[in-house]
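Sequence in, structure out. First:
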Amino acid sequence: MMKKCLLIDSTFACIPIMEALLREYEVFTVGNNTSALFAVENSKNHIFTDYSKIAVVKKIINKNMIEVSLPGCTDISLEVYGKLNPEFGTAISRVATKESFQAFCAKIGLKTPISYLLREKHPFPVIVKPDDSFSGKGITVVDSEHQMGDAVQNAIENSATGNYVIQEYLLGQLYSVSCFKRSNGSIQKFLVEEHCNQHAFSVDESFLVQQVPKWGPDLDQIIRNIYLGLPKKIIFLHLQFIVTKKGIYPIEMMLRSPGDLYSLLIQYSTGIDYGALYAASFGLNTSPESRPIDRKSNKIKRLTLKALPGEIVPEVILPTNTKDFHRTLPIGHLNTSALPVRYAVIFLKCCKLIHDAKDLNLHLKK
Protein backbone atom coordinates (compact mmCIF):
# COMPACT_ATOMS: atom_id res chain seq x y z
CA MET A 1 0.00 0.00 0.00
CA MET A 2 1.28 3.45 -0.91
CA LYS A 3 2.12 5.95 1.81
CA LYS A 4 -0.11 8.99 2.00
CA CYS A 5 1.35 12.41 1.29
CA LEU A 6 -0.11 15.89 1.69
CA LEU A 7 0.97 18.50 -0.87
CA ILE A 8 0.08 21.80 0.80
CA ASP A 9 -1.08 23.51 -2.39
CA SER A 10 -3.14 22.87 -5.52
CA THR A 11 -1.94 25.41 -8.10
CA PHE A 12 -0.76 24.53 -11.60
CA ALA A 13 2.79 25.47 -10.60
CA CYS A 14 2.87 22.20 -8.62
CA ILE A 15 2.41 19.97 -11.69
CA PRO A 16 6.00 18.60 -11.77
CA ILE A 17 5.95 18.04 -7.99
CA MET A 18 2.62 16.25 -8.20
CA GLU A 19 3.80 14.02 -11.05
CA ALA A 20 6.84 12.97 -9.01
CA LEU A 21 4.78 12.27 -5.89
CA LEU A 22 2.15 10.18 -7.68
CA ARG A 23 4.80 7.63 -8.66
CA GLU A 24 5.40 6.76 -5.01
CA TYR A 25 2.50 8.12 -2.91
CA GLU A 26 -1.22 8.50 -2.62
CA VAL A 27 -1.34 12.30 -2.80
CA PHE A 28 -3.78 14.64 -1.08
CA THR A 29 -4.00 18.33 -2.01
CA VAL A 30 -5.66 21.29 -0.30
CA GLY A 31 -7.04 24.65 -1.41
CA ASN A 32 -10.25 26.65 -1.60
CA ASN A 33 -10.20 27.45 -5.32
CA THR A 34 -12.76 25.23 -7.06
CA SER A 35 -11.07 25.75 -10.44
CA ALA A 36 -7.57 24.86 -9.20
CA LEU A 37 -5.91 22.19 -11.31
CA PHE A 38 -5.84 19.42 -8.72
CA ALA A 39 -9.32 20.26 -7.46
CA VAL A 40 -10.43 18.91 -10.83
CA GLU A 41 -7.79 16.31 -11.69
CA ASN A 42 -7.28 14.99 -8.14
CA SER A 43 -10.87 15.53 -6.95
CA LYS A 44 -10.98 12.25 -4.99
CA ASN A 45 -8.14 13.38 -2.75
CA HIS A 46 -8.56 17.15 -2.93
CA ILE A 47 -9.83 18.85 0.21
CA PHE A 48 -11.53 22.21 -0.19
CA THR A 49 -10.37 24.33 2.73
CA ASP A 50 -8.40 27.38 3.78
CA TYR A 51 -5.05 25.73 4.41
CA SER A 52 -3.61 28.82 6.09
CA LYS A 53 -5.25 27.54 9.30
CA ILE A 54 -2.80 25.13 10.90
CA ALA A 55 -5.47 23.45 13.06
CA VAL A 56 -7.45 22.58 9.92
CA VAL A 57 -4.37 21.10 8.23
CA LYS A 58 -3.52 19.01 11.29
CA LYS A 59 -7.08 17.68 11.37
CA ILE A 60 -6.81 16.69 7.69
CA ILE A 61 -3.53 14.89 8.36
CA ASN A 62 -4.95 12.96 11.30
CA LYS A 63 -8.29 12.11 9.68
CA ASN A 64 -6.67 10.75 6.50
CA MET A 65 -3.72 9.13 8.29
CA ILE A 66 -1.26 11.13 6.18
CA GLU A 67 2.35 10.22 6.90
CA VAL A 68 4.38 12.89 5.08
CA SER A 69 3.85 16.41 3.77
CA LEU A 70 5.66 19.11 1.85
CA PRO A 71 5.06 22.74 0.85
CA GLY A 72 3.92 23.67 -2.63
CA CYS A 73 4.58 26.94 -4.44
CA THR A 74 2.98 29.57 -2.20
CA ASP A 75 4.23 31.49 0.83
CA ILE A 76 1.28 30.26 2.90
CA SER A 77 2.07 26.62 2.12
CA LEU A 78 5.65 27.14 3.29
CA GLU A 79 4.50 28.91 6.46
CA VAL A 80 2.10 26.07 7.30
CA TYR A 81 4.77 23.45 6.61
CA GLY A 82 7.04 25.32 9.00
CA LYS A 83 4.39 25.13 11.73
CA LEU A 84 4.11 21.38 11.16
CA ASN A 85 7.91 21.08 11.34
CA PRO A 86 9.23 23.58 13.93
CA GLU A 87 12.94 23.17 13.10
CA PHE A 88 12.18 24.00 9.50
CA GLY A 89 9.89 26.80 10.65
CA THR A 90 12.78 28.46 12.49
CA ALA A 91 14.81 28.53 9.28
CA ILE A 92 11.85 29.95 7.36
CA SER A 93 11.40 32.80 9.82
CA ARG A 94 15.06 33.80 9.43
CA VAL A 95 14.65 34.58 5.72
CA ALA A 96 10.88 35.01 5.25
CA THR A 97 10.81 38.80 4.83
CA LYS A 98 13.12 41.23 3.10
CA GLU A 99 14.22 42.72 6.42
CA SER A 100 14.88 39.34 8.06
CA PHE A 101 16.73 38.08 4.99
CA GLN A 102 18.91 41.19 4.98
CA ALA A 103 19.74 40.61 8.65
CA PHE A 104 20.56 36.97 7.85
CA CYS A 105 22.90 38.05 5.04
CA ALA A 106 24.64 40.58 7.29
CA LYS A 107 25.24 37.88 9.88
CA ILE A 108 26.93 35.57 7.37
CA GLY A 109 28.90 38.35 5.69
CA LEU A 110 26.96 38.90 2.45
CA LYS A 111 26.40 42.37 1.03
CA THR A 112 22.84 43.39 0.19
CA PRO A 113 21.28 46.69 -0.93
CA ILE A 114 21.71 49.38 1.75
CA SER A 115 18.57 49.94 3.83
CA TYR A 116 17.43 53.30 5.20
CA LEU A 117 15.00 54.51 7.85
CA LEU A 118 12.15 56.77 6.76
CA ARG A 119 13.51 59.87 8.54
CA GLU A 120 17.12 59.12 7.67
CA LYS A 121 18.96 61.25 5.14
CA HIS A 122 19.99 59.20 2.13
CA PRO A 123 20.84 59.59 -1.54
CA PHE A 124 18.20 59.13 -4.24
CA PRO A 125 16.88 57.15 -5.98
CA VAL A 126 15.68 54.56 -3.48
CA ILE A 127 13.17 51.73 -3.82
CA VAL A 128 10.31 51.26 -1.34
CA LYS A 129 8.82 47.77 -1.01
CA PRO A 130 6.39 45.82 1.17
CA ASP A 131 8.52 43.77 3.56
CA ASP A 132 6.54 40.58 3.10
CA SER A 133 5.28 40.59 -0.49
CA PHE A 134 6.88 38.84 -3.47
CA SER A 135 4.30 39.67 -6.15
CA GLY A 136 5.83 42.90 -7.43
CA LYS A 137 2.90 44.87 -6.01
CA GLY A 138 3.38 47.91 -3.79
CA ILE A 139 6.87 48.74 -5.08
CA THR A 140 7.91 52.31 -5.99
CA VAL A 141 11.16 53.86 -7.16
CA VAL A 142 11.47 57.22 -5.41
CA ASP A 143 13.54 60.04 -6.88
CA SER A 144 12.87 62.80 -4.34
CA GLU A 145 11.72 63.37 -0.76
CA HIS A 146 8.25 64.63 -1.70
CA GLN A 147 7.42 61.25 -3.34
CA MET A 148 8.30 59.26 -0.22
CA GLY A 149 4.97 59.53 1.61
CA ASP A 150 2.93 58.06 -1.24
CA ALA A 151 5.51 55.34 -1.84
CA VAL A 152 5.48 54.26 1.80
CA GLN A 153 1.67 54.25 1.86
CA ASN A 154 1.61 52.12 -1.29
CA ALA A 155 3.97 49.60 0.30
CA ILE A 156 1.96 49.47 3.53
CA GLU A 157 -1.29 48.88 1.66
CA ASN A 158 0.26 45.92 -0.16
CA SER A 159 1.79 44.33 2.93
CA ALA A 160 -0.07 41.78 5.05
CA THR A 161 1.74 43.10 8.12
CA GLY A 162 1.88 46.78 7.18
CA ASN A 163 5.68 46.71 7.13
CA TYR A 164 7.96 48.12 4.44
CA VAL A 165 11.63 48.57 3.58
CA ILE A 166 13.52 51.44 1.96
CA GLN A 167 16.62 50.39 0.05
CA GLU A 168 19.13 51.83 -2.36
CA TYR A 169 17.98 51.38 -5.95
CA LEU A 170 20.39 49.18 -7.88
CA LEU A 171 20.68 49.01 -11.66
CA GLY A 172 21.68 45.62 -12.96
CA GLN A 173 20.50 42.30 -14.35
CA LEU A 174 18.05 40.21 -12.34
CA TYR A 175 18.67 36.48 -11.87
CA SER A 176 17.39 33.63 -9.75
CA VAL A 177 18.96 30.31 -8.85
CA SER A 178 17.40 27.11 -7.50
CA CYS A 179 19.83 25.06 -5.43
CA PHE A 180 19.80 21.47 -4.19
CA LYS A 181 22.42 20.36 -1.68
CA ARG A 182 23.62 16.80 -2.32
CA SER A 183 24.49 14.32 0.43
CA ASN A 184 28.23 14.79 -0.28
CA GLY A 185 27.94 18.55 0.25
CA SER A 186 28.13 19.54 -3.42
CA ILE A 187 25.39 21.76 -4.82
CA GLN A 188 23.30 21.24 -7.93
CA LYS A 189 22.01 24.58 -9.17
CA PHE A 190 19.93 26.02 -12.00
CA LEU A 191 20.65 29.65 -12.94
CA VAL A 192 17.88 31.62 -14.65
CA GLU A 193 18.00 35.09 -16.20
CA GLU A 194 14.84 37.12 -15.55
CA HIS A 195 13.19 40.15 -17.15
CA CYS A 196 10.21 42.37 -16.36
CA ASN A 197 8.31 43.58 -19.44
CA GLN A 198 4.67 44.22 -18.59
CA HIS A 199 5.33 45.36 -15.03
CA ALA A 200 8.55 46.96 -13.80
CA PHE A 201 8.80 44.71 -10.73
CA SER A 202 7.12 41.45 -11.72
CA VAL A 203 9.09 38.86 -13.70
CA ASP A 204 7.30 37.70 -16.86
CA GLU A 205 10.20 36.44 -18.98
CA SER A 206 12.92 33.97 -18.04
CA PHE A 207 15.31 31.41 -19.50
CA LEU A 208 18.08 29.13 -18.27
CA VAL A 209 21.63 30.46 -18.38
CA GLN A 210 23.58 27.77 -20.24
CA GLN A 211 27.13 29.12 -19.91
CA VAL A 212 28.86 29.77 -16.60
CA PRO A 213 29.09 33.58 -16.22
CA LYS A 214 32.36 35.23 -15.22
CA TRP A 215 30.87 35.95 -11.80
CA GLY A 216 29.87 32.28 -11.40
CA PRO A 217 32.54 31.49 -8.74
CA ASP A 218 31.36 34.47 -6.66
CA LEU A 219 27.79 33.17 -6.82
CA ASP A 220 28.95 29.71 -5.76
CA GLN A 221 30.62 31.20 -2.69
CA ILE A 222 27.47 33.15 -1.79
CA ILE A 223 25.40 29.97 -2.02
CA ARG A 224 27.87 28.04 0.14
CA ASN A 225 27.79 30.80 2.77
CA ILE A 226 23.99 30.73 2.81
CA TYR A 227 23.88 26.97 3.34
CA LEU A 228 26.42 27.28 6.16
CA GLY A 229 24.11 29.77 7.86
CA LEU A 230 21.08 27.47 7.63
CA PRO A 231 20.29 24.23 9.50
CA LYS A 232 21.87 21.17 7.89
CA LYS A 233 18.48 19.68 7.08
CA ILE A 234 17.75 22.51 4.59
CA ILE A 235 18.45 20.94 1.20
CA PHE A 236 16.60 23.28 -1.17
CA LEU A 237 16.74 27.06 -1.51
CA HIS A 238 15.73 29.54 -4.18
CA LEU A 239 17.61 32.85 -4.34
CA GLN A 240 16.89 36.00 -6.34
CA PHE A 241 19.72 38.48 -6.86
CA ILE A 242 20.93 41.41 -8.96
CA VAL A 243 24.28 41.54 -10.72
CA THR A 244 25.69 45.07 -10.99
CA LYS A 245 29.07 46.50 -11.95
CA LYS A 246 29.95 46.33 -8.25
CA GLY A 247 29.06 42.67 -7.81
CA ILE A 248 26.25 40.34 -6.76
CA TYR A 249 23.52 41.55 -4.40
CA PRO A 250 21.11 38.98 -2.92
CA ILE A 251 17.59 40.43 -2.88
CA GLU A 252 15.33 37.77 -1.41
CA MET A 253 15.22 34.05 -0.77
CA MET A 254 12.58 31.37 -0.30
CA LEU A 255 12.74 27.79 0.94
CA ARG A 256 9.95 26.59 -1.36
CA SER A 257 9.58 26.01 -5.06
CA PRO A 258 8.94 29.17 -7.10
CA GLY A 259 5.54 29.45 -8.71
CA ASP A 260 4.33 29.79 -12.28
CA LEU A 261 6.12 27.51 -14.79
CA TYR A 262 9.58 27.86 -13.29
CA SER A 263 10.02 24.15 -12.56
CA LEU A 264 8.80 23.23 -16.04
CA LEU A 265 11.26 25.73 -17.53
CA ILE A 266 14.09 23.83 -15.81
CA GLN A 267 12.68 20.48 -16.86
CA TYR A 268 12.31 21.39 -20.54
CA SER A 269 15.69 23.13 -20.63
CA THR A 270 17.72 20.38 -18.97
CA GLY A 271 15.70 17.15 -18.99
CA ILE A 272 16.12 17.06 -15.20
CA ASP A 273 13.13 16.10 -13.05
CA TYR A 274 12.91 19.29 -10.94
CA GLY A 275 9.72 18.14 -9.19
CA ALA A 276 11.31 14.91 -7.95
CA LEU A 277 14.43 16.76 -6.78
CA TYR A 278 12.27 19.23 -4.88
CA ALA A 279 10.16 16.55 -3.18
CA ALA A 280 13.30 14.56 -2.29
CA SER A 281 14.78 17.68 -0.67
CA PHE A 282 12.03 17.42 1.96
CA GLY A 283 12.85 13.79 2.68
CA LEU A 284 10.30 12.17 0.38
CA ASN A 285 11.12 9.05 -1.60
CA THR A 286 10.88 10.42 -5.12
CA SER A 287 13.35 9.04 -7.63
CA PRO A 288 13.88 11.46 -10.53
CA GLU A 289 12.72 10.20 -13.92
CA SER A 290 14.70 10.88 -17.04
CA ARG A 291 12.88 13.51 -19.08
CA PRO A 292 12.99 13.98 -22.85
CA ILE A 293 15.06 17.00 -23.80
CA ASP A 294 14.56 18.95 -26.99
CA ARG A 295 17.61 19.30 -29.23
CA LYS A 296 17.00 23.06 -29.04
CA SER A 297 16.68 23.05 -25.26
CA ASN A 298 19.08 25.98 -24.98
CA LYS A 299 16.38 28.09 -26.63
CA ILE A 300 13.56 27.37 -24.17
CA LYS A 301 11.85 30.49 -22.80
CA ARG A 302 9.08 31.05 -20.27
CA LEU A 303 6.67 33.98 -20.58
CA THR A 304 3.82 34.99 -18.31
CA LEU A 305 1.17 37.42 -19.48
CA LYS A 306 -1.21 39.03 -17.01
CA ALA A 307 -4.82 40.13 -17.26
CA LEU A 308 -5.65 42.80 -14.70
CA PRO A 309 -8.93 42.99 -12.75
CA GLY A 310 -11.82 44.03 -14.98
CA GLU A 311 -10.19 42.78 -18.18
CA ILE A 312 -11.41 40.12 -20.62
CA VAL A 313 -9.06 37.94 -22.64
CA PRO A 314 -10.97 36.90 -25.79
CA GLU A 315 -8.04 34.94 -27.22
CA VAL A 316 -4.39 34.04 -26.81
CA ILE A 317 -2.55 33.29 -30.05
CA LEU A 318 0.38 31.08 -29.15
CA PRO A 319 3.59 30.59 -31.11
CA THR A 320 3.66 27.41 -33.18
CA ASN A 321 6.63 26.16 -31.18
CA THR A 322 4.77 26.21 -27.84
CA LYS A 323 5.73 23.36 -25.52
CA ASP A 324 3.45 24.08 -22.58
CA PHE A 325 0.67 26.52 -21.77
CA HIS A 326 -1.35 27.12 -18.59
CA ARG A 327 -3.90 29.74 -17.66
CA THR A 328 -5.76 30.58 -14.47
CA LEU A 329 -8.77 32.17 -16.22
CA PRO A 330 -10.80 30.68 -19.11
CA ILE A 331 -10.55 32.55 -22.39
CA GLY A 332 -13.32 35.08 -22.79
CA HIS A 333 -14.09 35.43 -19.07
CA LEU A 334 -13.90 38.64 -17.07
CA ASN A 335 -11.21 38.74 -14.42
CA THR A 336 -13.10 39.63 -11.25
CA SER A 337 -10.16 38.82 -8.97
CA ALA A 338 -8.33 41.52 -7.06
CA LEU A 339 -5.11 40.12 -8.51
CA PRO A 340 -3.85 39.72 -12.07
CA VAL A 341 -4.49 36.29 -13.60
CA ARG A 342 -1.71 34.54 -15.42
CA TYR A 343 -1.35 33.09 -18.88
CA ALA A 344 1.95 31.23 -18.76
CA VAL A 345 3.63 29.73 -21.81
CA ILE A 346 6.90 27.90 -22.43
CA PHE A 347 8.18 27.78 -25.99
CA LEU A 348 11.30 27.47 -28.12
CA LYS A 349 12.66 31.02 -28.42
CA CYS A 350 13.85 30.55 -31.98
CA CYS A 351 11.15 32.67 -33.64
CA LYS A 352 12.63 36.12 -34.32
CA LEU A 353 9.22 37.77 -34.14
CA ILE A 354 8.65 36.61 -30.59
CA HIS A 355 11.04 38.05 -28.06
CA ASP A 356 9.16 38.93 -24.91
CA ALA A 357 5.71 39.14 -23.38
CA LYS A 358 4.75 42.19 -25.44
CA ASP A 359 5.26 40.26 -28.69
CA LEU A 360 2.79 37.50 -27.91
CA ASN A 361 -0.69 38.19 -29.25
CA LEU A 362 -2.59 38.59 -25.99
CA HIS A 363 -5.66 40.73 -26.64
CA LEU A 364 -7.15 42.53 -23.63
CA LYS A 365 -10.53 44.24 -23.64
CA LYS A 366 -12.20 46.22 -20.89
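Second:
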Amino acid sequence: MIIVMKPGTPRSRNLLDISAVPVLRTLTHLPIMVDPSHGTGKAELVPAMAKAAIAAGADALMIEVHPNPAKALSDGPQSLTPQGYANLMQDINLVSQVFGRFPEQYTFSNSSKITYSQKHVSIA
Protein backbone atom coordinates (compact mmCIF):
# COMPACT_ATOMS: atom_id res chain seq x y z
CA MET A 1 0.00 0.00 0.00
CA ILE A 2 1.22 3.49 -0.83
CA ILE A 3 0.16 6.38 1.36
CA VAL A 4 0.70 10.04 0.55
CA MET A 5 1.86 11.76 3.73
CA LYS A 6 2.07 15.48 4.46
CA PRO A 7 4.47 16.14 7.41
CA GLY A 8 5.17 19.84 6.76
CA THR A 9 6.45 22.11 4.04
CA PRO A 10 9.82 21.49 2.39
CA ARG A 11 11.31 24.66 3.91
CA SER A 12 10.03 24.16 7.43
CA ARG A 13 9.53 20.91 9.27
CA ASN A 14 7.13 22.55 11.70
CA LEU A 15 4.81 24.39 9.34
CA LEU A 16 1.83 22.19 8.49
CA ASP A 17 -0.06 23.28 5.38
CA ILE A 18 -3.55 21.79 5.72
CA SER A 19 -4.58 23.32 2.39
CA ALA A 20 -2.45 20.65 0.69
CA VAL A 21 -4.92 17.93 1.71
CA PRO A 22 -7.80 18.91 -0.60
CA VAL A 23 -5.29 19.66 -3.37
CA LEU A 24 -3.81 16.17 -3.02
CA ARG A 25 -7.34 14.75 -3.05
CA THR A 26 -7.79 16.12 -6.59
CA LEU A 27 -4.41 14.78 -7.74
CA THR A 28 -4.38 11.23 -6.42
CA HIS A 29 -6.61 8.32 -5.52
CA LEU A 30 -4.15 7.26 -2.80
CA PRO A 31 -4.90 7.57 0.92
CA ILE A 32 -3.64 10.82 2.45
CA MET A 33 -1.99 10.80 5.87
CA VAL A 34 -1.17 13.96 7.82
CA ASP A 35 1.44 14.12 10.58
CA PRO A 36 0.44 16.95 12.93
CA SER A 37 3.15 15.97 15.42
CA HIS A 38 6.08 16.67 13.09
CA GLY A 39 4.03 19.20 11.16
CA THR A 40 3.78 21.49 14.17
CA GLY A 41 6.53 20.35 16.53
CA LYS A 42 4.40 21.29 19.55
CA ALA A 43 2.07 18.96 21.42
CA GLU A 44 -0.36 21.77 22.22
CA LEU A 45 -0.93 22.35 18.49
CA VAL A 46 -1.41 18.70 17.53
CA PRO A 47 -5.13 18.37 18.46
CA ALA A 48 -6.27 21.42 16.48
CA MET A 49 -4.24 20.46 13.42
CA ALA A 50 -5.33 16.82 13.60
CA LYS A 51 -8.99 17.86 13.64
CA ALA A 52 -8.38 20.31 10.81
CA ALA A 53 -6.69 17.58 8.75
CA ILE A 54 -9.68 15.25 9.11
CA ALA A 55 -12.06 18.09 8.24
CA ALA A 56 -9.93 18.87 5.17
CA GLY A 57 -10.18 15.29 3.94
CA ALA A 58 -7.21 13.37 5.36
CA ASP A 59 -7.69 9.61 5.55
CA ALA A 60 -5.26 9.00 8.41
CA LEU A 61 -3.18 10.72 11.05
CA MET A 62 0.24 9.92 12.44
CA ILE A 63 0.46 11.18 16.01
CA GLU A 64 3.37 10.75 18.39
CA VAL A 65 2.44 9.47 21.86
CA HIS A 66 4.69 8.97 24.88
CA PRO A 67 3.81 8.22 28.52
CA ASN A 68 6.19 10.97 29.69
CA PRO A 69 7.01 13.37 26.83
CA ALA A 70 9.45 15.34 29.01
CA LYS A 71 11.63 12.22 29.26
CA ALA A 72 11.27 11.06 25.65
CA LEU A 73 14.60 10.45 23.93
CA SER A 74 13.29 12.15 20.80
CA ASP A 75 10.30 14.23 19.75
CA GLY A 76 9.05 14.78 23.30
CA PRO A 77 7.85 18.36 22.71
CA GLN A 78 5.50 17.17 19.95
CA SER A 79 4.25 14.02 21.71
CA LEU A 80 0.85 13.66 23.33
CA THR A 81 0.38 11.70 26.52
CA PRO A 82 -1.74 8.54 26.21
CA GLN A 83 -4.64 10.38 27.92
CA GLY A 84 -4.21 13.35 25.59
CA TYR A 85 -4.34 10.94 22.67
CA ALA A 86 -7.54 9.32 24.00
CA ASN A 87 -9.12 12.76 24.39
CA LEU A 88 -8.11 13.69 20.85
CA MET A 89 -9.62 10.49 19.46
CA GLN A 90 -12.95 11.40 21.07
CA ASP A 91 -12.78 14.77 19.35
CA ILE A 92 -11.74 13.16 16.05
CA ASN A 93 -14.83 10.95 16.24
CA LEU A 94 -17.01 14.05 16.52
CA VAL A 95 -15.23 15.88 13.70
CA SER A 96 -15.41 12.83 11.44
CA GLN A 97 -19.15 12.49 12.10
CA VAL A 98 -19.76 16.15 11.24
CA PHE A 99 -17.84 15.83 7.97
CA GLY A 100 -19.07 12.30 7.17
CA ARG A 101 -15.52 10.99 7.02
CA PHE A 102 -15.54 7.55 8.68
CA PRO A 103 -18.54 5.27 9.14
CA GLU A 104 -16.94 3.28 11.97
CA GLN A 105 -16.69 5.19 15.23
CA TYR A 106 -14.69 4.32 18.32
CA THR A 107 -15.89 4.96 21.83
CA PHE A 108 -13.67 6.10 24.69
CA SER A 109 -14.84 6.94 28.18
CA ASN A 110 -13.12 8.85 30.95
CA SER A 111 -12.68 5.52 32.71
CA SER A 112 -10.93 3.91 29.72
CA LYS A 113 -7.81 2.01 30.68
CA ILE A 114 -4.89 3.29 28.65
CA THR A 115 -1.88 1.01 28.28
CA TYR A 116 1.38 1.82 26.56
CA SER A 117 4.05 -0.36 25.02
CA GLN A 118 6.96 0.57 22.79
CA LYS A 119 4.94 -0.48 19.74
CA HIS A 120 1.50 1.01 20.36
CA VAL A 121 -1.02 2.64 22.62
CA SER A 122 -4.15 0.69 23.42
CA ILE A 123 -7.27 2.00 25.05
CA ALA A 124 -9.60 -0.48 26.70
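Remark: The mean pLDDT is 80.
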